[in-house]
Amino acid sequence: MVSLIDTNIVVRFLVNDNDEQFLQSRNIITKIEKGTLSAVLLSEVVMEVLFVMTKYYGATLADVVEDLKLLLSLPGMVNQDKRVLIAALETMVRHRIDYVDALICAKTQLQGYEWISFDADLQKHCL
What we know:
This protein is about 65% helix and about 5% strand. By secondary structure, the chain is mainly alpha-helical. The protein has one domain (about 1-125): Rossmann fold (3-Layer(aba) Sandwich). The chain has a two-stranded parallel sheet. Helix 1 (about 5-15) packs parallel to helix 3, helix 4 (about 60-70) packs antiparallel against helix 5 (about 80-95) and helix 5 (about 80-95) crosses helix 6. The model has no long low-confidence stretch (mean pLDDT about 95).
């Protein structure tokens, strides 16, 4: 069975501000790292982690992106869209655009979608 990882598991692991929850989240992440737990990190959770970590905890976007890329790269992380999510995170930092725009760019480039938008950031960075 594949488990869906919630935002609070990732945030507790990254922030370590609650000893009990940190230990539990570290145990989960360790199992994913060893491949003994299969998990998916939804795009929506990625977006929420980005928001919580940068807005509430004051982490830098670059640091949070690197942490998320590492999590997505773990052997037990079985997202079918893993490559797209990592590309979106990289695009977000490289072009300083928001996550949803970066996700649209990544899906366009890696999955062959066309995009329709009035958004100037997409027009500028996603061609």
